[in-house]
Automatic annotation (TrEMBL):
Membrane topology, record value: Single-pass type II membrane protein
Ranges for region Disordered: 30-62
Location(s), subcellular: Golgi apparatus membrane
Organism from which the protein derives: Bemisia tabaci
Name of the molecule in the record: Galactosylceramide sulfotransferase-like
GO BP annotations, alphabetical order: glycolipid biosynthetic process
Superkingdom classification of source: Eukaryota
Organism placement in taxonomy: Eukaryota, Metazoa, Ecdysozoa, Arthropoda, Hexapoda
GO molecular function, one term: galactosylceramide sulfotransferase activity
Main localisation: Golgi
Cellular component terms (Gene Ontology): Golgi membrane
């Protein structure tokens, strides 16, 4: 009888084990099917790699040491201060020898067309076609992006107040030439002015929504906009705010498990104050109305941004902000940064500390820096391909 009971116990345990195992297996198969939300899947994978950055004693400086993240997708939105964030990520990737998603030439990967993997330059494609950093202009396509980024990549973008964004867009891309009137006159007559197609097929109304991939035909549909905003919320781990750049970068450093010194910056592509138009309250209201989708998008994520700071801790943010301002001041002094003379509408910097590569790269334009990264990656990829071909060759005799 004891033998019989022993066998029965073994059989019961085995049945329970295999039932649990196959149930989990089927769940995973189901979740990875085409009907599953890729944003939710990626979030779940990311959460498995997530660790708390601090414990109850963190305010006393007792930070838990955690593994730094290195894989990040940054959706570079137009005229939102995104060049500043991009420069930080390019400096980090260069220092760490990481692989970038880059075009064969220039600095765009799509837009107005959506990004697809074949837009990556042939000479700089990694052997496994997976990359660490995606930080150049593109029109967001989540499905295609997931094909080139690691499964535990962090997804980040940046937004700006719609009024300031549209004013910047109007002047920087010379909409005055298209509408034959300056922005002030345009806002006085907007209801009678014909809506032109997007400048260069990619610049115009609701620029942030366009960059983030929403179909233009849905820009006036409240229901579609609301549904799409929630999709963006599920996909992106952090949405930065241009007007709160320092606070945003502190949150980014926290998300990536990076020290604050890694996100020190200079404001790149910032327009000269003489080229900026201060909009009145009435003008701002009109711009928000014209850019309804951008307005809803920004309002939603601005609220979440404030919630994020509360979760981070307001006092903790104050402490980090003081430290970050000090680090930025030190960085500017170390690089001996000066405003360069330029006829361009944006502020350009130069450094006398040309022996410090970090300083040189911090003041580099996007095109110059991108060209450097492309050349370095091309050399690295060529070496990796050579090794791969060597090991595929079954002939052990040298030619």
């Amino acid at each position: 009888m004891r033998y019989l009971y022993g066998n029965l116990t073994f059989i019961v345990i085995s049945v329970v084990f295999f039932t649990v195992y196959f149930t989990r297996f089927l769940d995973e198969r189901t979740s990875s099917s085409s009907g599953a939300d890729p944003g939710k899947q990626r979030k779940r994978i990311l959460d498995q790699h997530d660790f708390p950055t601090s414990n109850k004693g963190s305010e006393a400086g007792q930070e838990i040491r955690t593994k730094e993240r290195k894989d990040i997708f940054f959706l570079k939105t137009h005229k939102c201060g995104s060049s500043t964030v991009q420069n930080i990520l390019m400096r980090y990737g260069l220092n760490e020898g990481l692989d970038f998603v880059l075009p064969e030439r220039g600095n765009y990967l799509g837009s107005p067309t959506f990004f697809i993997p074949t837009m990556i330059g042939k000479s700089i494609r990694t052997p496994n076609r997976v990359y660490n950093i995606f930080t150049h202009h593109n029109r967001f396509n989540h499905t295609s992006t997931m094909k080139v980024m690691s499964r535990n990549s962090v997804y980040v973008t940046i937004l700006r107040k719609p009024a300031e964004l549209y004013e910047s867009l109007y002047n920087y891309y010379n909409f005055e030439k298209r509408y034959h009137m300056n922005l002030t006159t345009f806002l006085e007559n907007y209801s009678t002015v014909e809506r032109f197609k997007r400048g260069g097929s990619k610049f115009g109304y609701n620029q942030m929504c366009f960059d983030l991939g929403l179909n233009e035909k849905q820009f006036d549909s409240n229901g579609k906009i609301k549904q799409w905003i929630h999709e963006i919320d599920r996909t992106f781990d952090l949405v930065l705010m241009t007007e709160y750049m320092e606070e945003s970068l502190i949150l980014l450093a926290d998300l990536m498990k990076w020290p604050l010194k890694r996100v020190v910056f200079l404001k790149l592509n910032e327009r000269k104050s003489t080229n900026k138009l201060a909009l009145s309250a009435a003008q701002r209201k009109i711009v928000r109305k014209l850019n309804k989708c951008d307005t809803k998008l920004h309002d939603y994520f601005f609220k979440k941004f404030k919630q994020r700071i509360r979760s981070f801790g307001v006092e903790r943010m104050n402490t980090k902000l003081r430290e970050f301002i000090r680090l930025n001041d030190e960085f500017s002094r170390e690089c001996d940064v000066k405003v360069a003379e330029s006829k361009l509408s944006t502020v350009r910097y130069q450094t006398t500390n040309t022996l410090d590569s970090e300083c040189v790269h911090a003041v580099s334009s996007e095109l110059v820096f991108t060209s450097l990264l492309r050349n370095i990656q091309r050399q690295r990829v060529t070496k990796l391909r050579s090794l791969k071909n060597l090991m595929k060759n079954t002939n052990d005799k040298a030619a």
